[in-house]
Design brief:
By secondary structure, the chain is an alpha/beta fold. The chain has one domain: TIM Barrel (Alpha-Beta Barrel). The chain has seven helices and eight strands. The chain has an eight-stranded parallel β-barrel, surrounded by four helices.
């Protein structure tokens, strides 16, 4: 299985134009890019983000907007409002609902968010939990972020048995602070753990997503020529 590259592009086009240029030029390697303006869409359209998002969209790369859910503490109306701004201002086709709760008690809340997002026109709904949630979440999202953390923690990850009930395309792992020389091993480990969407980087600190990875090999992973299954839904993580 060749993993799909899902990129949390949390860097400004004026500061990292080369990163956005690379993404637009490699639709064969990049499946999805998460657009995060200011931990959300901001208060008005940003022309530079609009330009790069339009270019990605024209290249055939899926672009989705970042919306924080604060583990269920935000009103659904607030989430819908931010998604609406993304849909109005940028060529996004879905949403990354970040800081998603993981317990079964919050399932009704997230089921409502997912249904509302689809009614608004989102074709991809991504819950970023950062850990494995209750299995019921898989019924409502096309993609689940089930690990987001440093390399050392990833070595100890336990994968619950219920994941075998779902295709590998349902799961996304984000691993940062990967030591030099361990990037290939980390991607292979994600594949063995049935995560068909990945983002692996040696970058760390308060925002590991402020630039593309330094490891060229990670970025050069190609999608299967036969094509990846159409999404049926971090790293999300907040831009610090």
């Amino acid at each position: 299985m060749t993993p799909r590259l899902v990129v949390p592009a949390y860097f400004h086009p004026s500061l990292r134009p080369d990163g956005w240029e690379w993404l637009a030029e490699h639709p064969d390697r990049v499946w999805l890019v998460i657009l995060n303006i200011i931990n959300g869409p901001g208060t008005r359209p940003e022309p530079r983000f609009l330009a790069v998002a339009e270019r990605l969209h024209r290249a055939g790369i899926t672009v989705i907007g970042y919306v924080d859910t604060n583990y269920g503490q935000r009103y659904p109306e607030q989430v819908a409002d931010e998604l609406g701004r993304y849909l109005d201002w940028y060529p996004v086709t879905g949403v990354c609902l970040d800081r998603a709760a993981a317990s079964a008690a919050w399932l009704p809340y997230y089921a409502k968010l997912a249904a509302g997002a689809r009614e608004m026109g989102a074709r991809v709904v991504f819950f970023n939990h950062g850990l494995y949630p209750a299995e019921g979440y898989a019924e409502h999202a096309d993609l689940l972020g089930t690990f987001e953390g440093p390399w050392q923690g990833y070595q100890q990850l336990d994968v619950p048995r219920w994941t075998k009930n779902w295709p590998a395309e349902k799961f996304y792992h984000v691993v940062y602070s990967v030591p030099p020389g361990h990037d290939r091993e980390t991607v292979r480990l994600a594949v063995r753990r049935r995560a068909a969407a990945v983002y692996v980087t040696g970058r760390g600190g308060v925002n590991p997503y402020d630039s593309l990875p330094d490891e060229d090999w990670v970025l050069c992973q190609r999608r299967p020529r036969t094509g990846s299954p159409s999404p049926t839904r971090r790293g999300c993580g907040r831009a610090r």
